[in-house]
Amino acid sequence: MKICIVGSSGHYVYALRGIKEDPDAKIVGISPGCEGENIEKLFSQVNEMGFAPEVYSNPIRMFEELKPDIAVINTFFYKNSKLAIEAMKRGIHVYVEKPVALSIEELEELKSVWKQTKVKLSSMLGLRYTPHFWTAYKLIKENKIGEIRLLHAQKSYKLGNRPDFYKQRRTYGGTIPWVGIHAIDWIYWLSGKKFKLVFARHSRLYNNDHGELETTAFCSFLMEDEILATVNIDYLRPATAPTHDDDRVRIVGTKGILEVLNGKVYLLNDTTKEVTEVSLEKPPIVFLDFLNEVRGTEKCLVSSEDSFYVTLASLLARQSADEGKVIEF
Amino acid sequence: MKICIVGSSGHYVYALRGIKEDPDAKIVGISPGCEGENIEKLFSQVNEMGFAPEVYSNPIRMFEELKPDIAVINTFFYKNSKLAIEAMKRGIHVYVEKPVALSIEELEELKSVWKQTKVKLSSMLGLRYTPHFWTAYKLIKENKIGEIRLLHAQKSYKLGNRPDFYKQRRTYGGTIPWVGIHAIDWIYWLSGKKFKLVFARHSRLYNNDHGELETTAFCSFLMEDEILATVNIDYLRPATAPTHDDDRVRIVGTKGILEVLNGKVYLLNDTTKEVTEVSLEKPPIVFLDFLNEVRGTEKCLVSSEDSFYVTLASLLARQSADEGKVIEF
């Protein structure tokens, strides 16, 4: 299984994590995805794993010369979709950064090429593979909280100093698609329901000279079966906080309430009586299941359809926030 | 200071709490506010406090015969506003259940009578007087989190079996005005900012035969200065949970993050470095400050204007949820 990695501006470490667990996976080439993208850290990490990849300056030439089975694509965000399309057109399976596109038009083109080429595609919605979110998912499947009725998800990040491409909407895509998409994914994945409409807002105030980057946002969703969901997103986590992020979700069902908080899972229902910390389940290994899907032996936890749908939801939420109006799906 | 209490379907215990601390306050009369309202428990509580109030069946007659200084009004929700108007027209100050009206028209009438009669009015937004919310308020005033940018508030209640008047919108008013109003109040009071627009939804599904009562809801607000806020409301707290409610608020500022959770207050900023539990401050005593406002010696924490404004916000949120559209303030 030959793998090429394009860029290092996103979550390529997910791919490394899966590759480490797969004796037949081999990183054969790496390349920046954009002019000015520094891939030195990627190179040294791949080297430490014992691979000696060829280093290209042009990812398309890399695809054509090395003919990999899989391209891992995580460059400056505005190029991910275009490069995924170039890879798919050459019959290469793609593991691409989320959101998989920065506009509805790009998303439609990506889907259309995916349908024509019939390659496999997954995206870096890697938080599904954390023990806490995976355990929450299992508990819901085991019907511990009954029918889901209300969800609230939170993403809170330190801002720090971000690369220049974060400072323009055209190259960054927006905070709802970049950060909020995880929270939107939890809501969709954990509830198993589709979105009906969204109302969202965002604000660029107090973004510490990050140009067009939005510092805060909310999304509110009506879902199938009158399920209600809200999301809070911010880049205002204090610089001195012990962790980079503060990911949370609270899920209210007809029989109980489930929460993910501080990497732990808490359950309250008529059986537990009090809020009870639940032992974490071992999740699947990120990217390893995609390698196996390419082999045809397993289904990847993050399907192509989910990758497209969650990207769509984040782009419609961004549109709602930009236009100040409710958007129907 | 002569006080009459009308009804016992709301939070008259707030009034009892203040009266206990005030040697000059005296409960002189009690009455149901509606036909069929049982006030036996109120009677015995007032008795235990050492008062021997006259018991009326008609609150208007009680107002006219006993001429109290203050009427405490908390009957079936649809009658609170009407009875407050009757009291005010007789020059009686009113301490009334929230929401202070169940429709915009009623609210306008109440405000208009209040302006004409110049009596004092406050409402049972009593959670402001809890040590945890009061401490959060003080910390914000002390600038511990900088400029507020994003808020999320939660109300989660056990449903149990509610009286029949909860089962009709006409008599109950809706879950956003009845339960959500507290969360809306925290957002308004803690941020000190006005609302610009609201988008809300609610659902009656799984309300356990409670007719028109909404089981779940969210509200999302754009406020002044692009401050964003969301609210989650539910009646799905498991019956066996250790407490009736699970009140929360999380406030994200430019310099820190503050949370109220489980009756405690947590602060994270560049000084605390980690999420730190804050010692609780002693709040003012609920209703006692209203007694003093009537005397002219103090300002009540819940002003007339706040009571009207927070009721308006909850009614516009309900309208948004009913009509499925964004409502501007």
TrEMBL record, chains A, B:
GO terms for molecular function: nucleotide binding. Transmembrane segments: none annotated. SUPFAM superfamilies: Glyceraldehyde-3-phosphate dehydrogenase-like, C-terminal domain, NAD(P)-binding Rossmann-fold domains. Residues 134-259 form the GFO/IDH/MocA-like oxidoreductase domain. Residues 2-122 form the Gfo/Idh/MocA-like oxidoreductase N-terminal domain. InterPro entries: Gfo/Idh/MocA-like_OxRdtase_N, Gfo/Idh/MocA_Oxidoreductases, GFO_IDH_MocA-like_dom, NAD(P)-bd_dom_sf. Signal peptide: none annotated. Pfam families: GFO_IDH_MocA, GFO_IDH_MocA_C3. This is Oxidoreductase domain protein.
